[in-house]
């Protein structure tokens, strides 16, 4: 989800934190000119789709899956 205003992105992020519960990795990233709300790092893809369907339920139909390279640390799988 992306918006041009940081306050709107923060409101959406807070709503998603409440909806997805404690431990949900919800954050706002600034990629000019947009403020993007990102949720989690997921693997496998099935988990991603489950969370996406939970995000769509309350009306965030503009949410999409964004592929990204992440480190083991970001996934919480450090050895």
> Could you give the order of the helices and strands?
EHEEHH
Distance between the termini: 32 Å
Biggest β-sheet strands, sense, barrel: 3 strands, antiparallel
Low-confidence stretches: none
Strand content: 15-25%
Global geometry: globular
Please state the average pLDDT score.
Answer: 84
The Rg value, from CA coordinates, equals 13 Å
Main structural class: alpha+beta
How helix-rich are the residues, as a percent range? 25-40%
Q: How many alpha or pi helices?
A: 3
What does this structure look like?
The protein is α+β, with helices and mostly antiparallel strands and 79 residues long. The radius of gyration is 13 Å and the shape is globular. The chain is built from three helices and three strands, in the order βαββαα. Strand 2 and strand 3 form a beta hairpin. The longest helix is centred in the first third of the chain and has 15 residues. The protein has a three-stranded antiparallel β-sheet with strand order 1-3-2, with helices on one face.
Topology, please?
Layout (H helix, E strand, L loop, with lengths): L1 E2 L2 H15 L5 E6 L2 E6 L5 H12 L15 H4 L4
In short:
The protein has 79 residues and is α+β, with helices and mostly antiparallel strands. It has helices at 6-20, 45-56, 72-75; strands spanning 2-3, 26-31, 34-39.
